[in-house]
Amino acid sequence: MATCAPDPLFPLEDFHDETAQKASKEHFKIPVSSEMAHEKAQSHTSTIPNSEVPSYDDGSTSFSAADAPQIVRNKPFDAKEAQVLPQIFISNKTYTYDERVALFCDHIIGQCSAEDADEAISFYIIEKLASKRTWTAVWKTSPEVLLVNCDIGDLPFVGVLVDVNCTPCEGKSLPLRVSISVAEPYSSNIANLPRELVEDVLREHDYSVPILDVYPIQGMGADVDNIAEYLEHARFFYDFLWRDWDDEEECDEYAGLIEKRIQLYYDIQDGTIPGPISERYRKTLEEYRSKRLDLTKFQTKIRGEALPGEAVECWKKYYEMSMLCGLLKFWEDLRLRSHGPFYPRIYKRRKGQRTSGRIVTHIVAQIMTTDMIKNFSADTLIQQHDSLSAALDSCFSGDTVVVFPGEYHAVALASLTDDITIKGEGERKEVLFYSDPSHDNFVASKASKVMLMNLTLVQHGTCDGIVVVESGQLTLDNCVLKCQGTGVCVLTGASLVMKNCEISGAKGAGVELYPGSIAELHRNEIHHCSNQLAKDSKGSQGGINLKVLPQPQLKLTDNHIHDNHGYGVTILVPDNLYKASEDLEQTASGDKNETDYLSKALQKLSLEITTNKLESNTKGDIGLLRKMWVNS
């Protein structure tokens, strides 16, 4: 079996220090690789994505004198103040998925193995450098390279204006290096960075730096602009497509693996993968790199034969890194990611009832008054909390949480493991729960009996589901669910009772029933759902979506299901469940054969659909979608 790293008792030859990058939320929603994540690609020792360059109202990315940070030094330098850096070239071109695949998989990587990827990138850059050998650029490097014993604050990089000479290029394998010299006028993003300090550092490196550390400035002509674009493509490869374990494992079709990672990049960019999950992926990748760096540093401290304690610690770090590597591979596998789940669940332990058997009513309000408790019986045990999270942490099975009007962040709702009731006091629109975008779910119920009453759930960020019933039974009564991600999901074996509720805005179906689930929906309004998730009309899931085999059980009474993209109720069945016709969809209206297919489906399912109002759904009231899928 291929491993994620070499023998932990020997140094990793192809890995060294990382420099943290902050990804712009607008341009980078997936993890940015370490700037020194691959020693052969030392061209990333100090680079940051273009999104890191500060932008201003006029659209420029140059620093003003007021914006340039100052070095806070322990001892003064007699230094002339540097001028501001000019604007670097940033391409305005956006690339589609197909264009990225054609560029990296067909043109750059081709038939190369992972071990040859660096050479392929090197050849790609050299090909363009022939058009222009000298130009001016901003050299970006880690603050630690130039600044020692200085308080630099949260400075992502140190930039210096330099003249670049890439004649001749020093070899074809990365790190490709170019010769640089400090350009006139002396310019930096640090106003009082001493020029002599820069010269000393460059002299130590023979005035040679990795080519990906230099960023051509604007206004140098079309040839230099093209070089800048080629360098951007190389940085994109190491930021988003390369993994530290690639050249440690055998891969028959490396270009195919790169294609999957390009798909991952675009799935995160367009929201196909919910934001919280992509954020967890990013953090896991960062943690993996941190563990790998820790292992490398620990190995370098071992002199001679490792002592028993050092060997144990080394293996511990190695296996921690290996576990994270395995998890990342799981996430990156498109087949597994398609049918989820592609993030780990950490289950909260069920408390059960108190040993005393007492039941407590928890009041959530900033200030408690006598009017709040006047309707409680005299023997009610009451505990007041300032926050919803504090109340839920104090709950045991059988408790009730009464939430008074206000806005609350509902992090603790992501893991409901005890049988409790949570109800709002007053109008449901006055008790608002907001999701935390950094969490996978908004509400996740795992207890045998949970009830939410008289509340408004407002989903911020593309969480996995506004409500997910993983096991047991969840009752929603008189609640408003304002979705931004997916709607209510009822997983296999779980049960949902929903009464007098309103669901709107879900990117997928308003209610999605997995095989073997149970749902009773009475007097609800489900509207304007499945508007964003589907890439084409055939994939629209409508207001309610049922996945068949084994059959879910559904009772619908007096519901109003309207203005959804797709059918009001969609029944999704495998292609081999019924004898196929050429069409993948069978609608509730049409010729006799289509009607027969739908009738057979309804007869086989445990459906009770009475006195409901279905209207203005783009594809009709009830539809049968025949499709092959794999159960998670």
From TrEMBL:
<keyword id="KW-0597">Phosphoprotein</keyword>
<dbReference type="GO" id="GO:0030154">
    <property type="term" value="P:cell differentiation"/>
</dbReference>
<feature type="domain" description="Right handed beta helix">
    <location>
        <begin position="465"/>
        <end position="570"/>
    </location>
</feature>
<comment type="function">
    <text>Testis-specific spindle-associated factor that plays a role in spermatogenesis. In association with HSPA2, participates in the maintenance of spindle integrity during meiosis in male germ cells.</text>
</comment>
<dbReference type="InterPro" id="IPR011050">
    <property type="entry name" value="Pectin_lyase_fold/virulence"/>
</dbReference>
<dbReference type="InterPro" id="IPR012334">
    <property type="entry name" value="Pectin_lyas_fold"/>
</dbReference>
<dbReference type="GO" id="GO:0007112">
    <property type="term" value="P:male meiosis cytokinesis"/>
</dbReference>
<feature type="domain" description="SHC SH2">
    <location>
        <begin position="99"/>
        <end position="337"/>
    </location>
</feature>
<dbReference type="InterPro" id="IPR039448">
    <property type="entry name" value="Beta_helix"/>
</dbReference>
<dbReference type="Pfam" id="PF23762">
    <property type="entry name" value="SHCBP_N"/>
</dbReference>
<keyword id="KW-0744">Spermatogenesis</keyword>
<dbReference type="Pfam" id="PF13229">
    <property type="entry name" value="Beta_helix"/>
</dbReference>
<comment type="subunit">
    <text>Interacts with HSPA2; this interaction may promote the recruitment of HSPA2 to the spindle.</text>
</comment>
<dbReference type="GO" id="GO:0007283">
    <property type="term" value="P:spermatogenesis"/>
</dbReference>
<dbReference type="InterPro" id="IPR006626">
    <property type="entry name" value="PbH1"/>
</dbReference>
<dbReference type="GO" id="GO:0072687">
    <property type="term" value="C:meiotic spindle"/>
</dbReference>
<dbReference type="InterPro" id="IPR045140">
    <property type="entry name" value="SHCBP1-like"/>
</dbReference>
<keyword id="KW-0221">Differentiation</keyword>
<protein>
    <recommendedName>
        <fullName>Testicular spindle-associated protein SHCBP1L</fullName>
    </recommendedName>
</protein>
<keyword id="KW-0677">Repeat</keyword>
<keyword id="KW-0007">Acetylation</keyword>
<keyword id="KW-0206">Cytoskeleton</keyword>
<dbReference type="InterPro" id="IPR057508">
    <property type="entry name" value="SHCBP-like_N"/>
</dbReference>
<feature type="region of interest" description="Disordered">
    <location>
        <begin position="34"/>
        <end position="61"/>
    </location>
</feature>
<keyword id="KW-0963">Cytoplasm</keyword>
<feature type="compositionally biased region" description="Polar residues">
    <location>
        <begin position="43"/>
        <end position="61"/>
    </location>
</feature>
<keyword id="KW-0175">Coiled coil</keyword>
